Amino acid sequence: xxxxxxxxxxxxxxxxxxxxxxxxxxxxxxxxxxxxxxxxxxxxxxxxxxxxxxxxxxxxxxxxxxxxxxxxxxxxxxxxxxxxxxxxxxxxxxxxxxxxxxxxxxxxxxxxxxxxxxxxxxxxxxxxxxxxxxxxxxxxxxxxxxxxxxxxxxxxxxxxxxxxxxxxxxxxxxxxxxxxxxxxxxxxxxxxxx
Length: 194
Fold this sequence. Notes:
The protein is mainly α.
């Protein structure tokens, strides 16, 4: 969670972040893949579990940040920060990444600006466009967030066991490739067009 490191500032599209253009898949291939995975019913909702534990980690980080007197921020504001850390800096790219309107993103960025978390500066590639940048106040939040993640990681190691935690981390940090996005013909489409 190092906000100090600058990711790709070329405003990558979702395919670039995940390894390139989306692959093509048909319903038949998807059915074959599903059958070959042989997922037990209790594991069928892995995606919901990922979301649940995203929230679980986020609440832990928020709790730690609050205990260190950091500025409060909403989940939406946290997702903007995460988008910045992923290399999205233009408000329009952040909106596209989060799947919300430009207007909603603008409102969120203005709220964050009032709190001193972000600022707007001219885009070095096109001075007519503004980019969102993290402020020095965000540096303290990042430092505290890094400590929180380390403490959460240690607690997960105690709860799950180190071997399971290491295996989980390896799977979650692998490049999963481009997102799976289907068009109306059950063919995978370009995620940037969604």
